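User: Okay, second chain of the day. Same drill as before: sequence in, structure tokens out.
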Amino acid sequence: MMRPIVVMLISVVILLSASNAAYAWLRPRYEDPIVVERTELIVVAHLKEGSIQYVPHKHGPHEGASWEHHATLVIKDVLKGKYDQKEIPIIIHYGLTPVVGGYVKRENFMINYRAGRGDYPKDIIEIFDTGNSCHGLPSLVKDARQDNLWFLRRRSGTYGRKPGTGKYGIVDPEDLRPLKWKDYFLAYMADNPEIAIKEYAKKNPGIAGRAKRYLDHLEVQRILKIENPEERYSKLLPFFLNRTTWNMKCEAREEIISCGKTAGEQLKKVFDDPEHAEFREDIILMWRDIGYSEVVPLLIDLLEKHDQFWAKQNLQKGWWNKDVGSDQTRRRRDVYGEVYYGVCALRTFKDRRAKSVIDKTRTRWRAINFDNPQIVEECEAALQELSAREEAAQQSAPADADKPRR
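Assistant: Same drill. Structure tokens below.
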């Protein structure tokens, strides 16, 4: 969802207008090898002083302002792709903002990072991620006048999200990195990137965690080639429990679901293990996504027990946010999540055995003093769908009864 941008540059961000402000969004995160693979031209270069040009985008009177910056890069080395010139014109797309000397002013937008500081470097060029609603500091590089790694692509559109054929440029924060990462990124361009990254991580322990995500991704890809679903599940489970992610997704979770009923049955052990209690909500959803209806009796029992839990609670107004660090509030939130996702799963299974407990859950949560109606709404939707299914079954029953028996 787009919303007025709030760039947290310590205490020195000023938005000059709320009626026609710039906009920010929640950026996706791109993995290092993907950045290398997608980039047409990777260079060691620095911005040429005095070359930055502000280029506003056209917009209507009631539309938010946006812009891009044009500049010139001085190339010292080409790591990927071909470019014969020593200088290259580039676009710094909207969402990445070059700031000279700690100060920049654009339409309805101003950053004054040097306010109150007499020692702020006068000509330093910093580039901030002003397109991310959850991040502003620090600058992507210490000083863009110095050599850094530039991952250049030809893009188009207001945000640089579309393919382009014109000037090279940078779009995402991952497109500009400090020069100290040169050997690390070169490892992804080696003939055997896996071996190269392992060797680099051994020599540079500080990067081990970052490299591990890539190495884990490769291991998961190997596991997916195992045909036996039980063996595949057992090898994927540690990655799921370690919350290993790739491209902002838990690869192991998705592939465990693909193991079908084998995974559905095995996940019961994890669900019942107190050491893995934080996975209970996710496992309920995995059962739903697998279509593992064998778990219906377990979920019915779960909702029955949780109904007894809520019957004993003295819930005052604002209970959800009261003493959020306390064991009581944490427990209430955990049980709430299990109730909600339990109803979601039972709604998908459409098993008439669950009708009574879903109705009981709806009655309980109608009476509870809570602003969020999602449990009641999910219960009502589930009950409506169950009723519709029963009516359909009753209507088809006479036709089936008239058929001649063999």
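Residues 292-393 form one domain.

User: Thanks, on to the next one.
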